[in-house]
């Protein structure tokens, strides 16, 4: 395999390392299991915005409600675009940085995918 090719993930069924691409799906050549690499594996938490769209690290989202910033008089305004730095398994599950406010955690229920 050349350096510019990315290694494919192992099969979620048998952990076999010999997978190949078939259109948008990956296929395991050992057990013939087919899966979509964009979909989460069973047991993995799925993060969804207010409209039900799946969110991943690096997505851009828009705030859908004015949100008061705890401990300050600042407000994160409706329509503010924010890049998700990472999704975390906590009550406020989006870790991001908002211009003029700084590092902040948001709930997915108050954002929509941009």
UniProtKB/TrEMBL annotation:
Family membership: Belongs to the YjdM family.
The gene coding this protein: phnA
Ranges that cross the membrane: none
Stretches assigned to the Protein YjdM N-terminal domain: 8-36
Pfam families per UniProt: YjdM, Zn_Ribbon_YjdM
Annotated protein name in UniProt: Alkylphosphonate utilization protein
Domain Protein YjdM C-terminal: 48-114
